[in-house]
Write a structure and sequence with these properties.
With 480 residues, this protein is mainly β. 3% of the residues lie in helices and 51% in strands. The protein has 4 domains: 2-148, Immunoglobulin-like (Sandwich); 152-258, Macroglobulin (MG2) domain (Immunoglobulin-like); 263-371, Immunoglobulin-like (Sandwich); 378-479, Immunoglobulin-like (Sandwich). A hairpin with a 6-residue loop joins strand 6 (71-78) and strand 7.
Length: 480
């Protein structure tokens, strides 16, 4: 009997191969479980690359426990390594089935995190998939052709523009990470065509990362300060690294630098009305050389064809933005406002003298607009006869002169008088939208005292509405 029982157990084990994945017992022979074969991907384009680190991604839904973030184990080796490196890939989130790991490479076996490499080499990645659709166990293998480079040195851009631009330097080298418990530092040299250069200290992003970063600012050759790359005209920046412990370990990277050609714009092509505001915007990163504070600059406004001009101060919108704004008023009546006097059909020019240009020559940037004069206002009511207390009167004014700001809904005021109802007060009309120049308001006709939204009327009353600024009036009758 005992022999028969043992035989049954052996047969069962043969027919049903049971395994455990991430603590979950599965049956690899059960086709109803819909297993998928794991897939290995890397950051190497077309399975070929260079450098000292490689991102590995394994997609393995079968190893995914939806209740937690899981970890899977794989092996990595190279032609120059005697032993494979065990790597632990962590799931990107709960229930994703996607596992990632960053593999660091070195020509020297300094710690267990690094895979030993040499020159032109190959990286082999192997994952044992115990849940494949056809059943059983399968080795999933990816081979990468790789050129080992101990130090990767990069700038965050290929070209920089303007004196307020900043450059971020990134250096990758796990071999420079000599103390895994400390944040460490390395030096690089920064130089341009207009400076002898300086030493910049890069700081490791965190202990044991082997990733070092630093930032430099740009400035004119006359500028003094720390970590300033002095540039002029069409220039270039060079960042170089030399390993003091290994003379063969060097790296260099380059980028171009040029001034920014200034751009000046006005908020409209046409203006009308008295004290019409002209909003000026100037973009030029060369002005914002001091990145620690908001700066100012100056433009001039003039009548086209004349030499006489009015200076206008522009303020930077925020620290290090390189965008400057300001306002000048046409025929303004406030002494505190910068103003220029124009006649109808005159063309206003706003001029910026750009001293730093891509051509190397000083240039004038000009924005222009026409002042059409003072427009005629249209004042209308929605009826000429209103009946009954509680009825509403809608007043409308159409006047582009009071559409002063393109981005704001503005207001105008009218004076309302009644011959019998004791109303004589100002009411406000609101623009129907931004930049429409049409203003409306609806007010209840009532026997109660006049208020912001209410006009007091009496039986057989006459209502007069005046737009005083343009001396325009309309009338209507009211019967109870």
């Amino acid at each position: 009997m005992k022999g028969n029982k043992l035989l049954v157990i052996l047969i069962t084990l043969t027919l049903c191969f049971s395994i455990t994945v991430q603590g979950i017992t599965t049956d690899s022979s059960d086709k109803s479980l819909n297993y998928t074969e794991a897939v290995i991907e890397t950051s190497a384009l077309n399975d070929s690359g260079a450098g000292n680190m490689l991102e590995i991604t394994i997609t393995e839904p079968d190893a995914n426990n939806p209740e937690r973030i899981d970890t899977i184990v794989a092996k990595s080796g190279s032609g120059s390594s005697n032993n494979d490196l065990t790597i632990y890939l962590r799931e990107t989130g709960k229930n994703t089935g996607v596992f990632k790991y960053t593999l660091y490479l070195s020509s020297k076996k300094t710690n267990k995190q690094l895979l030993n490499m040499a020159g032109q080499d190959k990286i082999n990645i192997k994952y044992i998939d115990k849940t494949v659709p056809e059943g059983g166990v399968k080795d999933i293998v990816k081979t990468i052709s790789w050129e080992y480079q101990s130090t990767i040195l990069t700038l965050d851009k290929e070209a920089y523009t303007g004196y307020n631009d900043t450059a971020e330097i990134l250096l990758l080298n796990m071999e420079l990470n000599r103390n895994s418990d400390k944040v460490e530092y390395v030096d690089v040299r920064v130089s341009t065509n207009h400076s002898k250069g300086f030493i910049l200290e890069l700081k490791e992003t965190k202990s044991n990362s082997g990733v070092f970063k630093g930032t430099i600012n740009f400035g004119r050759p006359s500028k003094k300060g720390k970590n300033i790359a002095k540039v002029s005209g069409n220039d270039s920046i060079t960042v170089s690294f030399k390993n003091s412990r290994d003379k063969s370990d060097t790296a260099e990277c380059y980028a171009a630098w040029s001034p920014q050609d200034g751009l000046i714009t006005l908020d409209r092509e046409e203006y009308s009305g008295i004290a019409s505001p002209v909003e000026i915007t100037l973009t030029d990163w060369d002005i914002a050389e001091d990145t620690s504070r908001k700066e100012k600059t100056k433009v001039v406004a003039r009548l086209q064809g004349t030499a006489k001009s009015v200076p206008v101060i522009l303020n930077e919108t925020s620290r290090n933005s390189g965008i400057f704004t300001g306002t000048i008023y046409i025929n303004g009546d406030d002494r505190k406002q910068t103003s220029i006097n124009l006649n109808p059909k005159d063309i206003l020019e706003v001029v910026y003298t750009d001293k730093d240009t891509t051509t190397g020559a000083e240039a004038q940037r000009i924005a222009a607009a026409v002042w059409t004069g003072v427009s005629k206002a249209e004042l209308t009511l929605d009826s000429t006869l209103y009946k009954g207390y509680g009825s509403a009167m809608t007043i409308s004014v159409k006047d582009p002169d009071y559409n002063k700001r393109k981005t704001l809904q503005e207001k105008v005021s009218v004076l309302v008088r009644t011959s019998k109802g004791n109303t004589s007060r100002k009411y406000y009309l609101e623009e129907t939208g931004v930049d429409t120049g049409v203003f409306t308001g609806s007010f209840m006709l009532s026997k109660d005292a006049a208020y912001n939204d209410r006009i007091q009327v009496a039986d057989s009353d006459e209502i007069t509405v005046l737009f005083i600024d343009k001396n325009v009036r309309v009338t209507a009758r009211f019967n109870k």
